[in-house]
Design a protein that fits this description.
By secondary structure, this protein is α/β, with parallel strands linked by helices. Helix content is about 35%, strand content about 15%. It has 6 helices and 6 strands; from the N terminus they run E-H-H-H-E-H-E-E-E-H-E-H. Strand 2, helix 4 and strand 3 form a beta-alpha-beta unit. The relative contact order is 0.19.
Length: about 190
């Protein structure tokens, strides 16, 4: 039996991108926008007129401040050792050089060929996919793990076959549970 294929989104799943963006934006715009107020995926809908969060993405200053999410490094190292892991980001190609350097700084166990730029993640032949964007989960054929944020709460998880997790400990438990179930089902066929 081949190893379980696990794909993981980069922004807001491996890192604290939105939290860091909000710190910079709030200072620049003299605003108090919080993550809890961002109830849709496109953050620019919640910023003051004239401010585009996307303009920060290629900034090395931003990426010097972005941190890995709590326990993401530890669990992704285990997942990388035990499963077939890929990082899949729907980032624009212009954003990827700085993001690649960030990944290599904090997740140096990942090889270059494990980091993919993919806009339509449903095309990936993955067994499990972890994401914060519902558009990458709803209707997809892989096992769907959603890392909880206010912008992805307007869906019925059960109806969509989504497993909602609140931290990397939850994510890891769900991956190992799914892998055990997959192995049992494969052995009984």
């Amino acid at each position: 039996m081949r190893k379980l294929r696990v794909t993981v989104d980069l922004d807001n799943v491996m890192n604290d991108l939105t939290e860091t963006l909000l710190e910079i934006y709030n200072k620049d715009a003299n605003d108090n926008l919080t993550i809890e107020e961002i109830t849709k995926y496109k953050i620019d809908n919640f910023t003051k007129e004239g401010y585009k969060i996307s303009e920060y993405f290629q900034s090395p200053a931003l990426w010097m401040r972005v941190n890995p999410l709590y326990q993401s490094h530890e669990y992704l190292k285990i997942i990388n050792d035990d499963y077939d892991l890929r990082v899949v980001s729907a980032s624009h190609l212009g954003d990827m050089p700085v993001k690649y350097r960030w990944i290599k700084t904090y997740f140096n166990f990942l090889k270059r060929e494990q980091i993919w730029t993919v806009f339509d993640k449903d095309w990936i032949d993955s067994d499990v996919h972890i994401d914060d964007g519902l558009f990458n989960l709803v209707g997809a054929k892989y096992h769907k793990i959603c890392l909880d944020y206010p912008w992805n709460r307007d869906v019925n998880d059960k109806d969509e076959g989504i497993v909602r997790c609140f931290n990397w400990g939850d994510i890891f438990k769900e991956i190992t549970r799914f892998d055990k179930e997959r192995k049992v089902n494969n052995l009984t066929r």
